[in-house]
Amino acid sequence: MDKIYYFMKRDIISFSTYKTNMLLMVLSAVFGALSYAFLGANAQMQSVLEMYNISLTTYLIIGIAFNTYLSQSLTLVQKTINPWSLEEVLVSPTGLVTFIVGSSLWGFIWSTGTIVIYLAVGILAFGVVLSINIVGTLLVVALGIGTFIGFSMIGAGILILTKQGDPVTTLITIATSLFGNVLFPPQVMPIQLQVISYFVPQYYFFTTIRQVLTGSSLLSILPDLTILILMCAVILPLGYYIYSWCLQTARKNGTLSWF
Amino acid sequence: MTASKEYAIETRNLTKTYKSKIKTAKNQRSLFSHKEKRIVAAVNHLDLQIRQGELFGLLGPNGAGKTTLVKVLCTLLPPDEGTALVNGFDVSKQQMQVKQSIGTLFSVGERGFFWRLNGYSNLEFYAAIYNVPRNGRKERIIEVMELVGLKEHAFDFFQKYSGGMKRKLALARTLLADPPILLLDEPTTGLDVTSSRAIRDFIKNDLIKKTGKTVLYTTHYIEEVAQMCNRVGIMNKGKIIALDTPDALKDMAKKGEVAELVVKNMSSAQVQALRGMAGVEEVAAQVQDAVLGQTRLRIRLTDVDALPRVLDFFFKEKIKLVNFKQEEPTLEDAFIELTGAGVGR
Lengths: 259, 345
What we know:
The complex is a heterodimer of chains A (259) and B (345). With 259 residues, chain A is an all-alpha fold.
């Protein structure tokens, strides 16, 4: 905990020196929430209401808000363990996992703040109604973050070897926006494309998070939740294995600190 | 290999190779040309022992394998063959114990620092990850900052530090956990004369004499190791090709004579002619004063009998001698003789 505290202190001090950026990020969240809320209040997407029994505004606000967790997780390992600091990390007697956890906490706290802004705008200005299943929300968020940290480790591992160009992050970002059930349900797409959604964990994350935030019990979301658990159970260890292998290969080749 | 208490660092048959792909001469300009695979031994079957409390200088030209050796010793690179013990711990099998025994300063010392934090906060972060006990951590940070002469700038932003201050902070980082062994990889590269001297004095007077630490000091600056190290190893192509005290290494180059002269109005053709003379082994020429047309020459002769012939050459060519002295061979002469390479001064 002592180490984690100093990671947090480092990141908060560092972040607080960029005051303009901090203000812009808050404004961006507020105006982003307003834009999607106006869109939701005035657009029609019948299938959304049928599937989730929620308003389009609620659908969009939850999607865009919780996507910040996934975006944060997806680039987490690359940001933490980069060539600039990798050697310093590896020669210290602190393990990689502590580095990754310690370096990510402030980002997640900031993301949580952003989510609160999105939800607050939705609730206060557009009548979004939430009935939060706290245990379910925490579980789904943990599974989503775990899965995306797995992807992040795969991307970071590839980046350690290729130095530039990480196809995993690009592919996952594309998959999230097209098949991830963030801004529209896959059911609005042709059936051939819909099928792809069922193979990406984002679909199950956004489906279940909307349900647990609008009052569904864990039992009622069990089928989708089980798939998300299985995906996380495969992707997270796989990411760790790939990252470790790439790191070991770069150490063997002596290319760790190359850019 | 059994650990010896006498040695802080001990390697046996240590080898580290790199695979590289090089474009063949035919296809230099082609983007997707065939590349030839080559294996380069950066550290080549190296046997080295560094005693406890010793300031050991490792001298070598760029690409000699010094940095690779440091990276193997600090567990960053796994060796391909052989063994290396640091503080009695095996770098391949006891990595955590090795990490707790060493402080490592890489040649790019400012890596890993956070530019938006001040010097103190940077060290506070590293003190935590280097397991410096929380009780007394603050005092330790101030102590190491004072040691390296940064106490007055402790609360300045790191981004405002000069190159020398950044390097000093990196040195302070290596000292935080008070490790018995320090691996300092080219700690003065890129620094001005004053900063370099301050760091060298600190290492020699404070680290070695007062605290008795063991220091492996790599550099390609000859004067540094000549002035401060107990023993010097000359490394070339992954091997230690000579290892002794600086004085003993100088003696190796005493087979010939060295003359240092300042001459006036000597043409490059005349320098070439001098190089071609019998008994002249090497001529280093450097413009001393372009306005006055003065050139400084350092001539290595195979034996003392060649000297009159050289002086006669200047007389016949009507080259005016401004200054002349016979010199003792230096460590640089030994280095050049052993490696056949020039080094930075």
